[in-house]
Every structure is written in C-alpha cells, then in structure tokens.
Amino acid sequence: MDKPKEIEEILITEKRIERRIIELGKTISKDYKSKNLLLVSILKGSIIFLSDLLRNLNLSCDIDFMSVSSYGKQAESSGIVRMIMDLKEDIYDKNVIIIEDIVDTGLTVSYLMKNLSLRKPGSLKICALLDKPSNRKIKINLDYVGFTVPNKFVVGYGLDYNGKFRNLPYVGVLKIYNVKN
Ligand code: IMP
Question: Which atom of ligand 1 approaches the CA of 71 most closely?
C-alpha cells in the first residue's frame, strides 16, 4: 500500500513489529507456562496486535473484548473514560492480560485495571504495543511493552485518527494539522 500523504514518517516498520511480537510471544508463553491465560483486547485499536500476538503464543489461551472511550474525535484525551462494551465472560480467578494499542496519559489503562481488579481475577497484567511515556498523567506499571514512542500522534497497525489509517501495516506519525476531517 502506498504511503498516504497524511503520514509524515514511518516510525516502526512492519518487519520490526513482526520481530518484536515474536519476542513478546516467547516471553509471555514462558511467563504463563502451564497456566490458563485470557487476553482482554481493548477495541478497536488493539485487534491487529492481538491477532499477531495470539499466533505467537505457545500455550492455551482464550480472548475476550472490551471497549472503552477516552478520546472523542480529537487527538487529545478528554480525561474521561467511559465503558462502551463490557466483557462477555467472567474473569474470576483467571490469569488476565489487558492488550492495549498504546498507553498515552495512562488514564484508560488505569480505569481498566481498577475496573477489572474488582472482579477478582487470579492475576492481572498489561501488554501494550506502544508506550508514550512523555504524556503520562498517572503512574502506571506496564508489564509488557512492544515499543516506546515519542510524544507524537501515531497511526497504523490498528491505531486510527477519526477511524482512518488502522489498516496501515506499519506505525507512522500523522501530519496531524494537515488532516481535514
Ligand atoms: P490514554 O488513556 O491517554 O493512555 O489513551 C489511550 C487511548 O488513546 C489509546 O487506546 C488510543 O486509542 C488513544 N491514543 C493515545 N495516543 C494515541 C496516538 O498517538 N494515536 C492513536 N491513538 C492514540
């Protein structure tokens, strides 16, 4: 696919993502050896990451989905997290890993950790493809991280801007002020 004009630069290539996910898959498979695992994918941004990570896990695991919203149509966090869709299954006593596309302010993941820990899972960890630590508003401990990114708005590999660019196979920086809605 040609690079859209709205993409300033390719930050993380398809190949680098592929290699990193193989490594993450190995680490998680080792950490959860002979345990049951439930991956909780946060819609919609994490679906491509989830599907690639899932195929690199060498253990028995299930998936479930949750949808929350902290961003409207703007590229800045509103600071308010809303539950849009809850999990289908009970997570009591299960080993859960939250699968996120990117942790920016940390407000979404902090809300998810609080919300899910009330349901008494056996264990609860976070795996984020991207970590943007420079914009953090709340201290968060990320258990598994794919890449650390600078404080720029990134899209592709599941991440969007106004519902666009999710299908790019790489992570790219958006020329944000040039994009017309
Ligand atoms: P947080 O609550 O500020 O950590 O934001 C988490 C959510 O904001 C992510 O799951 C994304 O949906 C969205 N987000 C934050 N930064 C970016 C970005 O650079 N590109 C696309 N989405 C982002």
Answer: 8
Q: Please state the pTM of the whole predicted model.
A: 0.93
Q: Pairing between strand 61-69 and 95-103?
A: unpaired
Spatial separation of the C-alpha atoms in residues 71 and 77, rounded to whole Å? 5
Q: Ligand 1 centroid to 107 CA: how many Å? A: 10
pLDDT at 75: 53
Which atom of ligand 1 is least distant from the CA of 70? Answer: 2
Backbone angles phi, psi at 82, to 5 degrees: -120, 140
Smallest CA-to-CA distance from 10 within 179, 164, 157 is with: 157
Task: Kindly state if the Cβ of 99 falls inside 6 Å of ligand 1.
Answer: no
Query: Could you report the per-residue pLDDT of 29-71, keeping only the tens digit for each?
Result: 999 998 999 999 999 999 999 999 999 999 999 999 999 987 5
pLDDT at 179 over 80: no
Residue bearing the bigger pLDDT, 163 or 179: 163
Task: Give distance in angstroms: CA of 60 to centre of ligand 1.
Answer: 29
- Give yes or no for a contact between 73 and 50, defined as CB atoms under 8 angstroms apart: no
Residue nearest to atom 5 of ligand 1 (CA): 104
Is the CB of residue 28 less than 8 Å from the CB of residue 57? yes
